[in-house]
Structure formats: structure tokens, C-alpha cells
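Format notes (please read before filing issues)

Several people have asked whether sequences and C-alpha cells are stored in separate files. They are not. Every record keeps both together, in the order shown below: the sequence lines, then the C-alpha cell lines. Line labels are part of the format and must not be stripped during preprocessing.
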Amino acid sequence: MTKTLDALPNPLRLIPLADFPEVEPGADLPGLVRNAATRAGIDLAGMVLVVCQKIISKAEGRLVSLSEVAPSAEAREIAGAHGRDPRQVEVVLRESRRIVRRGNGVLITETHHGFVCANAGVDLSNAPGPEVAILLPEDPDASARRLFEALSSERGTTPIVISDTFGRPWREGLVDVALGSAGLAPIRDDRGSRDRAGRELLVTQPATADQLAAAAGLLMWKSAGIPVVAIEGLLIEGDGTVREALLREASTDLFR
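Then the structure lines:
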């Protein structure tokens, strides 16, 4: 029996939580989000929050001072070949399962989480010091779950998507994608429904969490200081993690 998708989607409203304070290790992130929502005049119940990875990492203390990093021989070799800081390369190697590709001063690696991205997500922009590197959260899905449980209430849940900017093969530019999620299905399974011509959909599975991250990224300029965007109007269904729903298994990945 095939499913039907008769209902039209609701209009979505994206609300940036501006005037967000600098986040330090150990910060009460749920409290900071609630305060920002109050200043914005919104109720978080029933809204989806897209949260920039960096404030998660800062609150969780995922920071490394490059002055304390001793580069390995491998890091020095790679840094010399590509004009990089060997200390930063060492941090990237520590955060990686493997190097996927390197060239033109760029390191593409697979992180211990399974993400394939530049520099294992290690970033120095908007760091709390000139020689401080920010790492990805150890478990972005678990981070999203903690925030989801802290912000949801009897009035309604507040699903969470943790986002970061990734490059893409064959295309220029960066797009925000989901690193972690809680309280919503990261991928919508439309298989078994029918298109407008009545044909059954066999492979259609929109990546909802990535789509939400990309939409919120339009408001998350690095210079704007907006690390959280609330999205109102989404029909929230299911639950799940990015790691289980969106990371493709090596056995089905034609690009490995």
C-alpha cells in the first residue's frame, strides 16, 4: 500500500537569536539559549533550533592551544609540503581516522565520527585566542540530545540540529550541514508515496536535518555573532541521530 503526501508544507519562519554572549568552557548553554529566546520574544516550545557547532565545542571545552602541541614527523612532513602550520596539522591528524586527500594546501580527512571534511573540522576562526584551535564535539548527537532534553518541556519539545559548514565535491562554496540531531527524524523517508503524476517514489529520502542546517546557515554569518537560529512551522516527526541516519556506510559508498 502506497503512502500519500497530500498535505502542503507549512510556511517556515527563521528567527536568529542575536546578541548571544561569548561561550566559555563549562557554560550553561541551555540557559544562554533560553535567555536569547526571551530577548527575541519567542517561545521555544515546538520550534526547531539549529545550533552552530562552535558554541557546543566551546561549552564542552573542545579547545586546544597550539603552543602546547608537539608536531609528529608526519605532521611536519605534511605541513612542509603544503605550507601549513605543523602544530595545526598535528591536531588535524589526531582528530582523523584517515587522510582522504591532500593537495593545494588542503587536507580532506575522515574524522573519528565518520565525517569527511576539510581539516577534520579543526578551525581557528572565532576562537577564544590567536593560537587556539576549536575541535568538533566528541559526540554531536549526544550533545544535541542533552540540549534537547534540557530545553523541551511539557508545553512542547524543542528539537535540535547541530550544524557546521562543509565544502562539497565538484562544487565551490560552503554549506551548513547537520553534525548531530535530537528530537526529529534527520531524514524523511518518502519511499512508497507517489509524485504528482502518480508514479511511486522508490529512492526519495530528503535529508531534513541537512536542509534545516543549510537554511539556518543563511543567517549564521561568521561576523554576525548568531550561533542559534529558531525555525518555526516545521511538522516535526520521528527522532534519530545524524550518525545513524545520514552517514553512508562504506559498503554502499561508490566514492570510496
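For reference, the curators noted about this record: The chain is about 25% helix and 25% strand. Strands lie at 13-16, 48-52, 63-65, 96-103, 106-111, 116-118, 132-134, 160-168, 171-182, 228-232.
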